[in-house]
Design goal:
Layout: E1 14-16, H1 18-21, H2 28-33, H3 35-53, H4 69-79, H5 85-99, E2 102-106, H6 113-122, E3 140-144, H7 150-160, E4 176-182, H8 188-204, H9 209-214, E5 216-220, H10 225-233, E6 239-240, H11 254-262, H12 267-283, H13 290-305, E7 309-314, H14 320-334, E8 342-347, H15 356-361, E9 366-373, H16 404-421, E10 426-431, H17 436-457, H18 468-478
Parallel strand pairs: 2-3, 2-4, 4-5, 5-6, 7-8, 7-9, 9-10
Antiparallel strand pairs: 1-10
The structure holds 5-phosphoarabinonic acid (PA5).
Length: about 475
């Protein structure tokens, strides 16, 4: 028997905006005219990295270290393996996998949305509902601390602290741990959920301080309230969010990689995909550069066609959370100074039955970017005969044997044709398949595109000063005397 494992595919993802040009609303000359500004924006985005590294960041927020983070993590892992960050992440993930059956990620915004995107795209769609054996011994993953929702928190507690007698303290299936993710370490939503769950976890481990510390993995900035708590608890595993990596750009730090590895996602391939995208971004000429082409079309669609709404239309349920992650990335990065397009995630064909009417005939303020997937991960289903009847009541006998991917392709092509027939601009990002390598490429492409667009239009993509207003006013109500 051969011990050589086949090398998993590394096909590139691609971007195609021919149907946008075909509407006539975006002359080719405009795209050509944007080549030089795009090259300048790329240079500036890469120069940000050098500026940050040399300590000349200035006063404005600057978090460009995500750009070469995947290649740096992989290089360190390849050369100084046992001392590397990635090694520590994999080791902590293994420990958690072996000791608990559920991990709860506490975090909000950039501190949890990337993890959700990885989980939903790369894991079994019903991961949490499978038995431990069917999950290959990987824990379930739950999320809290992303809202202040009483009933949702109570619902999670129902799962974590089953009625007395149902859970045995030594039963692996009843054990759980929490990853607390907050760069600032002081975000209220996450902090109150941390308190709530710490209390339950302390009770679950019989108030044993050492066991409690092992079950809490903080992922946070070098200092702050969460870092102090980690020290007090004596947590054996604590991960940092590196300087120069902002929350919404942190998916390829321990923030995303640790929970991903816990649930069995191949984080090395994820990083390899992301690093491959950074290489293309740096090296490919504008006309062949998916990041720069995407920025060009989104920007010109906004400028020339009034497309201030960007619909990311996923043709797979599994990419919906990627869309929600991107909504946050684009909104917080470019929604400043009364500028910035509005991102909107749709899942098709599902949302054709809710938004399709508006996309086809509503206000002409949208650019639709399809997220299409070449091949499914599982064997294609085919339409069976009608069980329990020989009467063809549903009138589908002529489609017996038609495969699910064939039906989806017909829906995609039909929708694109319908939009084209009324001049609705539609572009497509194509993933050959959904796996760690393509998801790594996609997330990195969207992060790079966001910062390049910021530099192109003169908006600092880093920082989110506007979010402070609600926080301040919320705290004023909670602490009127404070
Ligand atoms: O992108 C960002 O920086 C934000 O979305 C933050 O991730 C979010 O506000 C949570 O902040 P923190 O990680 O400090 O708790």
């Amino acid at each position: 028997m051969s011990v050589v494992r086949p090398k998993p595919p590394e096909d590139p993802i691609s971007y195609d905006a021919a149907a946008v040009l075909a509407t006539g609303g975006m002359p080719q000359a405009d795209l050509v005219g944007l080549i030089e500004p795009l090259e300048a924006a790329r240079r500036e985005s890469l120069a940000d990295l050098e500026r940050w590294r040399s300590g000349n960041a200035g006063v404005d927020p600057l978090d460009p270290a995500f750009i070469d983070l995947p290649e740096r993590l992989l290089a360190d892992y390849g050369t100084t393996r046992p001392e590397s960050e990635l090694f520590a992440i994999l080791r902590a993930a293994k420990r958690l996998r072996e000791t608990v059956d559920r991990v709860v990620v506490l975090g909000i915004g950039g501190s949890y949305m990337g993890t959700r995107a990885l989980f939903e795209s790369c894991c079994h769609p019903f991961h949490n509902e499978l038995s431990r054996g069917e999950r290959g011994g990987r824990p379930r993953l739950s999320f809290e601390g992303y809202n202040i929702d009483n009933d949702s928190a109570q619902g999670l507690l129902d799962l974590l602290t089953p009625a007395a007698g149902r859970a045995d303290a030594d039963d692996l299936l009843a054990q759980w741990a929490m990853l607390v993710v907050s760069k600032s370490g002081g975000t209220l939503e996450t902090a109150v959920a941390t308190r709530l769950l710490l209390q339950k976890l302390a009770a679950a481990v019989g108030q044993d301080a050492a066991r409690l510390a092992e079950r809490v993995v903080p992922i946070t900035g070098a200092s702050g309230k969460l870092a102090s708590l980690a020290t007090t608890l004596g947590c054996p595993d604590v991960f940092g969010i590196p300087d120069g990596v902002g929350g919404r750009f942190s998916v390829f730090t321990a923030v995303g990689l640790l929970p991903a590895s816990v649930v069995g996602i191949d984080v090395v391939r994820l990083l390899e995909g992301a690093a491959a995208m950074t290489r293309r971004f740096r090296e490919a000429p504008v006309a062949e550069n998916p990041v720069l082409q995407y920025v060009a079309v989104c920007h010109l669609a906004e400028q020339r066609m009034g497309a201030t709404i960007r619909v990311l239309s996923s043709w797979s349920n599994r990419l919906e959370a990627v869309g929600l992650w991107y909504d946050q990335l684009l909104s917080e990065s470019l929604g400043k100074d009364e500028k910035g397009a509005t991102p909107l995630t749709a899942v098709t064909t599902r949302d054709l039955h809710s938004r399709g009417q508006q996309h086809q005939e509503g206000r002409r303020d949208k650019l639709i970017t399809n997220l299409c997937v070449g091949e499914p991960r599982r064997d294609p289903l085919t339409l069976p005969g009608l069980a329990g009847s020989a009467g063809n009541e549903d009138q589908l006998d002529d489609l017996i044997g038609t495969a699910w991917p064939t039906m989806l392709e017909a829906a995609t092509d039909g929708t694109n044709e319908a939009y084209a027939s009324v001049g609705r601009p539609t572009a497509t990002i194509s993933l050959p398949r959904i796996d760690e390598h393509t998801v790594g490429q996609l997330l990195q492409m969207l992060m790079l595109a966001t910062v390049v667009e910021g530099r192109l239009v003169g908006t600092n993509p880093y920082g989110q000063p506007g979010v402070e207003a609600y926080k301040k006013l919320m705290m004023k109500r909670l602490r009127p005397e404070g």
